[in-house]
Amino acid sequence: MKQFKGKVSITLRENILDVQGKTIEHALHSLNYNDLTHVRIGKYVEVLISAENTEIAQARLSEACNQLIANPIIEDYKIILEEIK
After folding, report:
1. How many Cβ atoms sit within 10 Å of the Cβ of residue 39?
2. What total of structural domains would you count in the chain?
3. Cα 39 from chain centroid?
4. CA nearest to 42, candidates 60, 16, 66
5. Distance CA 67, CA 69 (A)
6. pLDDT (tens digit, 9 = 90+) per residue, 52-62?
7. Is residue 35 part of a domain?
8. Are the C-beta atoms of residues 63 and 8 closer than 8 Å to each other?
9. Is residue 52 exposed (0-12), middle (13-18) or buried (19+ Cβ within 10 Å)?
10. What integer pLDDT is reported at residue 85 of this predicted model?
11. What is the Cα–Cα distance from 72 to 27, expressed in whole angstroms?
């Protein structure tokens, strides 16, 4: 059985208003960081996975994201897998 580290970046979908992102963007502008725009806030999750291969590890983590880790109705996620030697 191989070990993988899964890294999941979760963000609100583009058409969902990101209230936290807007709040930070306004604060940045009040500090004269007017060139920083379209601020989006997200979550980052790391998990260790035991699986026979990359495809199985990817499928298991994607399934977990769809069922619990992310809210697929309002959030998108990206998975990066690294095999641990």
Report:
1. 17
2. 1
3. 15
4. 16
5. 7
6. 999 999 999 99
7. no
8. no
9. exposed
10. 87
11. 29
> Could you tell me the CATH number of the domain that includes residue 73?
3.30.1280.10
Condensed to tens digits (0 to 9), the pLDDT of residues 2-41 reads: 999 999 999 999 999 999 999 999 999 999 999 999 999 9
Domain that holds residue 71: 2-16+42-84
Determine the Cα–Cα distance for residues 80 and 49; give it in Å rounded to an integer: 12
Specify the amino acid at residue 53.
N
Half-sphere exposure in the Cβ direction for 76 (13 Å, CA): 9
Whether residue 80 is contained in a domain is answered as yes
Amino acid symbol at 13: R
Please name which of 58, 37, 49 lies closest in space to residue 5, comparing C-alpha atoms.
49
Phi, psi at residue 39, to the nearest 5°?
Answer: -70, 130
Q: Which residues pair with 83 in a beta bridge?
A: 4
- Measured between its terminal Cα atoms, the distance across the chain in Å is 11
